[in-house]
């Protein structure tokens, strides 16, 4: 059974930075693509970034500001978020799936989410 636990959310001023972590409890961590998604109030959950091996994808809205990485020794995926904007405010979820994709239905197991709030 795959389990994911997010951490690192919080309140930050616009222009600030946060690093989210996604700890994945699974024996074959390297076999999974890990995606970060976010859901703002009243909006649909959207893809932010994903990683599989050394391949990565980013939403246009975060390119140049967010960086995804993974540490296979720690079974952890990180999302470094710089130059945060109020519109980045959302609950951020990580998810595990069989292939690299920004489509949420590809991902079969989800974490519980972590709140990110960016004040103006």
Secondary structure elements and pairings:
Elements: E1 3-7, E2 10-13, E3 18-25, E4 33-39, E5 46-52, E6 55-58, E7 66-71, E8 76-81, E9 90-97, E10 109-110, E11 114-119
Largest beta-sheet characterization: 7 strands, mixed
Rounded to an integer in angstroms, the radius of gyration calculated over CA atoms is 13 Å
Q: Hey, roughly how much beta strand do the residues contain?
A: over 45%
The average pLDDT is 96
Number of helical elements:
0
Can you offer a commentary on this structure?
With 120 residues, the protein is mainly β. It is built from no helices and eleven strands. β5 and β6 (55-58) form a beta hairpin.
Quick structural summary:
With 120 residues, this protein is an all-beta fold. It has no helices and eleven strands.
Fill in the keyword field for this structure.
7-stranded mixed sheet, 120 residues
């Amino acid at each position: 059974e795959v389990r994911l636990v997010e951490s690192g959310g919080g309140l930050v001023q616009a222009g600030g930075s946060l690093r989210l972590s996604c700890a994945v409890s699974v024996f074959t961590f390297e076999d999974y693509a890990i995606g970060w998604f976010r859901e703002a109030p009243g909006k649909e959950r959207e893809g932010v970034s994903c990683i599989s091996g050394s391949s990565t994808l980013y939403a246009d809205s975060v390119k140049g500001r967010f960086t995804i990485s993974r540490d296979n020794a720690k079974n952890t995926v990180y999302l470094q978020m710089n130059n945060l904007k109020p519109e980045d405010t959302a609950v951020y979820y990580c998810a595990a799936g069989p292939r690299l994709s920004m489509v949420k239905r590809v991902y079969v197991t989800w974490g519980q989410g972590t709140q990110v709030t960016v004040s103006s």
